Amino acid sequence: MPKPLRVRYSRIARLVDELLEKYNVHEPPVNVHRIAIGEGHQISYEYLDDEFSGFLLKGTKHFVIGVNRSNAENRQRFTIAHECAHALLHDFDDIHVDKAFKLRSPLSSKAIDVEEIEANTFAAWLLMPERMLRNDLLRWGIDVQSDDSVAELAHAYEVSQQSMAFRIANLLSRLR
Amino acid sequence: MKDDDLYEMLGQEIRRRREALKMRQGDLADLVELSRASVTNIELGKQSVLVDQLYKFADALKVKPADLLPSSPFKSKQPEREALSPKAENWIERVRKSAQ
């Protein structure tokens, strides 16, 4: 599997939709732990300094997702989703270590590597599915300029406010 | 990295530099006061180099001694992954064993 040259958005959208359907996810928060386990991955936790968020290790029969338990809960969920993306989309020899990546805009300076952008996109879309979020934005009549509204949504989806803000901005830019 | 790798890399750098200067092994041998066979072996990494010889090579090749040496020789064989903290490496090792 050669490295992707550009971000495969439609493929990512399809994979995310398939997972949401397979695991019958219709409302937030998305149980990413259940999805990862359901996909046959094991999850290993350890308390570490901030040196990295997680890793994906290729075992003989399954993948192991390593999660830095010192990170905030939301961040750990993002890490699991991010590593699931690497397992689905990317090729590597033995282990892929994700250094403490910055959240999470495709514009983030850390997101220079196409594979990392893909994994971050996948994670954002899985944790904040477009249809769900769009409905919430319409139903709640959310004022997206308001920090409180973003905080409320972030809380409901169990993601950081920063990721939610990026995700909403991303959705709105495509609605116009 | 093993010692052999260090001398191999040093030898490659000496050869690269010599060729850039369009020098023959014999010319270089005269300048560093070694036999041509020694220079051949050194370039192949089969013969170790004393510190005073390193300075002679550097002089002859018009570089600083450090320029002939690999920058971080003991990491050069593992470009694929940066080293993590011992605790992190230990964790990964445990996970690796359990996943076999």
Overview of this structure, please?
The complex is a heterodimer of chains A (176) and B (100). By secondary structure, chain A is of the alpha+beta class. Chain A contains 7 helices and 4 strands; from the N terminus they run ααβββαβαααα. In chain A, strands 1-3-2-4 form a 4-stranded mixed beta sheet, with helices on one face. In chain A, strand 2 (52-58) and strand 3 form a beta hairpin. Chain A is globular, with a radius of gyration of 16 Å. The N and C termini of chain A lie far apart (36 Å). By secondary structure, chain B is mainly alpha-helical. In chain B, 62% of the residues lie in helices and 0% in strands. Chain B starts with a helix and ends with a helix. Residues 75-79 of chain B have low confidence and may be disordered. The A-B interface holds A 42, 44, 46, 48-49, 51-52, 55, 57-62, 64, 66, 93-95, 97 and B 80-82, 84-85, 87-88, 91-92, 95-96, 98-100.
Describe this protein with a few key phrases.
heterodimer, A: 176 residues, alpha+beta, four-stranded mixed β-sheet, 4 strands, globular, B: 100 residues, mainly alpha, 6 helices, 62% helix, 0% strand
Summarize the structure.
With 176 residues, chain A is α+β, with helices and mostly antiparallel strands. Chain A has 7 helices and 4 strands.
Instruction: Please report the total strand number of chain A as a whole number.
Output: 4
Distance between the termini of chain A: 36 Å
The biggest sheet of chain B, with number of strands, parallel, antiparallel or mixed sense and barrel status, is: none
N-C termini distance of chain B: 26 Å
DSSP summary, beta strand count of chain B: 0
- The best one-word shape of chain B is elongated
Radius of gyration of chain B: 18 Å
The percentage of residues in β strands of chain B lies in under 5%
Approximate helicity band of chain B:
55-70%
The low-pLDDT segments of chain A are 102-111
Q: What structural category characterises the helix and strand content of chain A?
A: alpha+beta
The succession of helices and strands of chain B, N to C, reads HHHHHH
Which protein chains are joined by the largest interface, and how many residues does each one contribute? A-B, 20 and 14 residues
Oligomer kind: heterodimer
Shape of chain A: globular
